[in-house]
Design brief:
Blueprint: E1 12-19, H1 22-33, E2 36-39, E3 48-52, E4 55-62, E5 72-78, H2 82-91, E6 95-103, E7 107-113, E8 119-125, E9 140-147, H3 150-161, E10 166-171, E11 174-179, E12 187-191, E13 203-210, H4 213-222, E14 226-234, E15 237-243, E16 249-254
Parallel strand pairs: 1-4, 5-8, 9-12, 13-16
Antiparallel strand pairs: 1-5, 2-3, 3-4, 6-7, 7-8, 9-13, 10-11, 11-12, 14-15, 15-16
Length: about 270
């Protein structure tokens, strides 16, 4: 697949993991996906970049000492003007968790909490556009917002990021919309108000592609991780929810002859135990 070098504003463009044990996380993900890892210098906080072949695919950062936050994967949305995007998000009801900041010559980043309580990153690219591959084995294949306030979430992302959501199902027992550029789907929004366990907030979750989901789930356990939900079949493929050795959860999504480009439509995502 050709390397990606640009993103439409509002699309997921990068993912990274905040870890309390960088060396353990590095060993886990390189072993599970065959990634290689490089570490930046002190000027970038020794940030680790994961590579799939010659393409950057994800990042890894160290939790601050004494942090009480759980280890977690974060999705970043592409923006053209991060200052304007952050102000637009604030005006639309978001909380700014991290004000826009410059990351060397790579670009500018910010972190927000959307009005439904889900954290999401913003990225304005310079030298670093984002992940170089997606929708294939060993790369991000889907990004999904599980929200406790579906209508508010759709309104917010439409207003701030210019999404045009496409309803996949609008029945009260299951509401799900996809988003992305014209003729494409970059991710989905799931109405999880009735299914998220008490105390679990709205959140984004990352799907990473593998050729064999059951085998990959077993490999997760061998490497010190855990299976949060056993592999299941859906009309869009095979999926499993897992956690790495430090507790950061993600979904495994089967990638075979055809690229995975749609979400699970079962109420599977509701079993998230983050």
């Amino acid at each position: 697949m050709p390397t990606i070098d640009s993103f439409t504003p509002g699309e997921p463009c990068w993912v990274d993991l905040m870890s309390s044990d960088v060396e353990r996380s590095k060993q886990f993900y390189t072993s599970l996906f065959g990634w290689t890892a490089t570490e930046s210098g002190d000027e970038y906080g020794n940030y680790v970049t994961f590579w799939k072949g010659d393409a950057q695919v994800a990042g890894l950062a160290r939790q601050q000492p004494g942090s009480n936050f759980a280890d977690v994967w974060t999705t970043y949305l592409a923006v053209d003007d991060i200052d304007a995007a952050a102000e637009s998000a604030r005006a639309a009801g978001a909380q700014i968790l991290m004000e826009p900041m410059t990351v060397g010559d790579q670009g500018r980043m910010a972190m927000i909490l959307d009005p439904t309580g889900a954290a999401i990153g913003l990225w304005q690219s310079a030298e670093h556009a984002g992940f170089g591959v997606n929708n294939e084995n060993g790369a991000p294949v889907w990004h999904e917002l599980n929200t406790r306030d579906y209508d508010a979430a759709l309104s917010f992302y439409q207003a701030v990021f210019g999404w045009t959501p496409v309803p996949l199902s609008d029945a009260m027992e299951f509401r799900y919309s996809t988003f992305g550029g014209e003729g494409t789907m970059a991710g989905g929004v799931y109405d999880a108000h009735a299914t998220l366990p008490e105390g679990v907030p709205s959140h984004w979750q990352l799907y990473l592609g593998v050729a064999d989901v059951p085998a990959a789930a077993l490999r997760v356990v061998e490497l010190g991780g855990s299976i949060l939900r056993e592999p299941w079949d859906s009309e869009f493929g095979v999926f499993a929810q897992v956690a790495d050795p430090t507790g950061a959860s993600f979904q495994l999504g089967g990638v075979a002859a055809e690229i995975v480009s749609e979400p699970t439509t079962s109420k599977s995502v509701s079993s998230d135990t983050e």
